[in-house]
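Trying the structure run again after the queue cleared.
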Amino acid sequence: MLKRIRKQEAENRRLFGSAYVENQLIFKWPNGEPYKPQYITVKFPKLLKQYGFPHIRFHDLRHSCASMLIANGFNLKDIQDWLGHANISMTADIYGHLDMTRKRSMADSIAGKFGGMC
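Done. Tokens:
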């Protein structure tokens, strides 16, 4: 995908000539101009509705990603690096909640240690 974007960028640079806005961004308008921050805020809910997904905030994708990584057994240090947090406590405090499946698994594991006494 990135190779395709780079190829399209080169073509856009040729087509727009001196009007092309040079920058290091990957996702931008064909003339190289960066997307305005509010573009995502406005466009994202429309895409969710178009494809029948429930409404969530764009930032919730980050939270969901972190929660899914935790639920799939990745450690907090790796998730901290993935998210770019300066310290692990931020990752643990904000994204470290557990999903119900994992909580059930923890409870079952503890119950198993009691040999059916519970």
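The first helix runs from residue 2 to 16. Worth checking whether this holds up in the mutant runs.
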